[in-house]
Amino acid sequence: MVAASIVLAPLHPESDLRAVEAVYRRASDYLALESGLTPDAAARAFFEERPPTGDDAPLKFGVADDTGGLVAIGDLAFGYPEPTDACLGLLLLVPTVRGEGLGQAILGEVKRLASARGALRLLLGVLDANERARAFWERQGFKLNRTSGPHAFGKRHHLVHRLELPLGGNA
Ligand SMILES: CC(C)(COP(=O)(O)OP(=O)(O)OC[C@H]1O[C@@H](n2cnc3c(N)ncnc32)[C@H](O)[C@@H]1OP(=O)(O)O)[C@@H](O)C(=O)NCCC(=O)NCCS
């Protein structure tokens, strides 16, 4: 069971590296698709990655279930690629909590946070190979902005579809 109210808790490499690694270990399907990295390497990359421009450091967040265990991780950057954009660099749920509306609920909180920071648009990149995720984002109202690549992701190369969603202004 996942808590009814979604809290995007900030994650830090000093305290949360092993918990993030455990999420990647459980989500080995996504890791195999995306990068082919080990859970350990993916967890380090999760904390290191940040967009080339933008405000501050991105928010690396986690969502816990009602036992306190991490079941989802994500990455939200502000001011990238344009100053009035927010960019969801990653949203990853462990398989046991997928398909229950948690992704949609987290997106709702991400949109609220991004709007509160003044973002007018939310962007993300979905891999061409990740058809289920693309269907999910399109159901949430995202539209294709552009396609680029192939880009290197660890041991893999992918075409990436950049999707965008207009935000309603300040929350
Ligand atoms: C994509 C994702 C964030 C959606 O969150 P979610 O909580 O599963 O989504 P919801 O329950 O709100 O909606 C379910 C829909 O998600 C989509 N989905 C994408 N990947 C899925 C997966 N591996 N398992 C279940 N549903 C998935 C499906 O389209 C599903 O629709 P369906 O029920 O008609 O099959 C989540 O499934 C996930 O983390 N997937 C693996 C990692 C990933 O692909 N992240 C996105 C990178 S751009």
Calculate Rg over CA atoms. 15 Å
| Outline type | globular
- What would you call the quaternary organization? single chain
Say how many strands there are. Answer: 7
Unreliable residue runs: none
Strand content: 25-35%
**Sheet with most strands: strand arrangement:** 1-2-3-4-5-7-6
For the termini, the CA-CA separation is: 28 Å
Q: What are the bound molecules?
A: coenzyme A
What is the averaged pLDDT score?
A: 94
Q: Which sequence of SSEs, written as H and E, runs from N to C?
A: EHHHEEEHEHEE
InterPro entries: Acyl_CoA_acyltransferase, Bact_Acetyltransf, GNAT_dom
Keywords: Acyltransferase, Transferase
Protein name: GNAT family N-acetyltransferase
Pfam families: Acetyltransf_1
Please give a structural write-up:
This protein is of the alpha+beta class and 171 residues long. It has one domain (9-166): Aminopeptidase (3-Layer(aba) Sandwich), CATH 3.40.630.30. It has helices spanning 13-26, 28-34, 39-48, 102-116, 131-139; strands at residues 9-10, 55-64, 70-78, 85-93, 121-127, 143-153, 156-166. A seven-stranded mixed β-sheet has the order 1-2-3-4-5-7-6, with helices on both faces. A hairpin with a 5-residue loop joins strand 2 and strand 3. The longest helix has 15 residues, at 102-116. The model has no long low-confidence stretch (mean pLDDT 94). The site of coenzyme A (COA) has 18 residues, from strand 4, helix 4, strand 5 and helix 5.
